[in-house]
TrEMBL record:
It comes from Glaciimonas immobilis. Residues 154-211 form the PAS domain. Residues 308-441 form the GGDEF domain. This is Diguanylate cyclase (GGDEF)-like protein/PAS domain S-box-containing protein. SMART domains: GGDEF, PAS. Gene3D superfamilies: 3.30.70.270, PAS domain. PROSITE patterns: GGDEF, PAS.
Length: 448
């Protein structure tokens, strides 16, 4: 075979590859190590275009920065010359609008083909997510039914969520004594009783309306240790005989619930790590954008059931580009980690604190009205202003701006709530930075 025909063969192969790329039923994007796009098929353009801020698709990481800020760091930290950088990473694009549409999700796999060549495979995962949710509930049911006899505690709750009577399964799983739990709210299984009456009521109402309420998380044992638990609440309606005042007994419908708590610490150790990787931000370790959208969907559902204060804060580091330019990218990363951990420390357990963009964070605050959110934001802003980050022996000082929006009837969905907080943030930036603004309707009136 002559050198010439060899080159021709390669050209034919390359042409075939391009054809495949062009027609593939998934989005395929070839980039340099820094994310500069070299090749992309039409489906990729269709999936990515709505995310582009400037109408261009020149750099994959830049386009995805607002929905998957972790990707750039993952690619940079991947030192092998080739291999899978991430598989099935999920980037949340939009939240659902109640009763109208499913939240949109983009699946991203990133493969390093050569030191300076990456290939991204993009898929629209919107349908998959809806199916997965159903599967999760089905699995929870199956687990509850088929679990071994020793790993679950089953108890009945009265209509307000108080534990009605003792049985040995409670002691076996939770190590509490009868005296410590009977007659108490089921919040006794949460650290420092760290769940509000409102939140307990939410779970009970969810069980009423959906047939069950499912939650996973750390729960406390009577001996002070904690375990990772899957808890399910199911309503039970029972006809009970009511007697009183000498009147003949009548059958009354009494609302009660069954609470099933399972200790799944051991079983979820591996799965938990995998789940963690999907729900936490790669750089800072706090929740990612996807987790925020999942929490928001639940909170908005709760709000529509029983409106009560719900606020959203967007927190953005000021002049962050300057931090990167002055001290370097590694210092910038450190500042982001500092901001994330300070934010985590300042919020409650029921708040969802997440990184939603490059230097942008969000906190979703249930049971918090605009005044409460404003005070919290101000306290946090001052805390950041007063602190500094130590980097290579020097000190980096930075400030933040915060935009707040509050849930009300006119908010169409989480995207809308997010857009309002974003507008408030924009005003805070435009009017000097290092300040807090609350979204204030179309007039965008400024807070004094
Ligand atoms: N170190 C680091 N920098 C990041 C990361 N993600 C985004 N950035 C940088 O954050 C900077 C954001 O810059 P701009 O959007 O111009 O905003 P800014 O400089 O903070 O200015 P204002 O927000 O207007 O106060 C860009 O330089 C990004 O490259 C990251 O994960 N690590």
């Amino acid at each position: 075979m002559s050198a010439h025909s060899g080159t021709q063969d390669l050209a034919v192969e390359h042409e075939a590859l391009l054809q495949f790329l062009y027609l593939a039923p998934v989005g395929l994007v070839q980039t340099s190590a820094a994310g500069e796009v070299e090749l992309m098929n039409p489906l990729s353009a269709q999936l990515l275009m709505p995310l582009s801020k400037d109408g261009g698709l020149a750099n994959l990481f830049k386009v995805l920065e607002s929905v998957a800020p972790e990707l750039r760091g993952m690619a940079e930290d991947f030192i092998s010359p080739q291999g899978a950088i991430c598989e099935g990473f999920r980037a949340q694009l939009t939240g659902g609008i109640r009763g109208k549409e499913e939240p949109k999700m983009l699946g991203i796999s990133l493969i390093k083909l050569a030191p300076d060549r990456l290939m991204a495979v993009l898929t629209d995962m919107t349908q998959v997510i809806a199916q997965e949710r159903q599967l999760k509930y089905n699995t929870a049911w199956l687990n509850a039914i088929t679990a071994g006899v020793t790993d679950y505690a089953l108890m009945s709750l009265d209509h307000d969520g108080r534990i009605q009577e003792w049985n040995p399964s409670i002691g076996r799983v939770t190590k509490f004594t009868a005296k410590e739990v009977v007659g108490k709210y089921f919040s006794v299984f949460y650290k420092d009783q760290g769940i509000s009456i409102d939140r307990m009521t939410d779970y009970l109402r969810e069980a009423d309306e959906d047939g069950w309420s499912l939650s996973e998380g750390w729960r406390m044992k009577g001996d002070g240790s904690r375990f990772w638990s899957s808890s399910m609440i199911v309503p039970i309606e029972e006809m009970v005989a009511e007697t009183g005042g000498g009147a003949p007994s009548v059958l009354q419908e009494e609302k009660r619930y069954a609470l099933i708590i399972r200790d799944i610490t051991a079983r979820t150790r591996d799965a938990g790590a995998r789940l963690n990787a999907m729900s936490t931000d790669y750089l800072t370790g706090i929740a990612n954008r996807r987790t925020l959208f999942e929490s928001a969907e639940l909170e908005l559902k709760r709000w529509h059931r029983h409106p009560r204060p719900l606020s959203l804060m967007i927190i953005d580091a000021d002049f962050f580009k300057k931090v990167n330019d002055t001290y370097g990218h590694a210092a910038g990363d450190l500042v982001l980690c500092d901001l994330a951990s300070a934010l985590g420390e300042s919020m409650r357990e029921i708040d969802t604190v997440s990184r939603i963009g490059g230097e942008e964070f969000a906190a979703l605050l249930p049971s918090t009205d605009s005044e409460g959110a404003f005070q919290l934001a101000e306290r946090f802003r001052k805390r950041v202003e007063a602190a500094c980050v130590t980097f290579e022996g020097g000190e980096i000082k930075y400030t933040i701006s915060i935009g707040i929006s509050v849930m009300d009837e006119s908010v169409r969905g989480f995207d809308d709530l997010l857009a309002r907080a974003d507008t408030a943030l924009y005003i805070a930036k435009e009017t000097g930075r290092n300040k807090v603004e609350i979204w204030n309707g179309l007039k965008r009136a400024l807070r004094t």
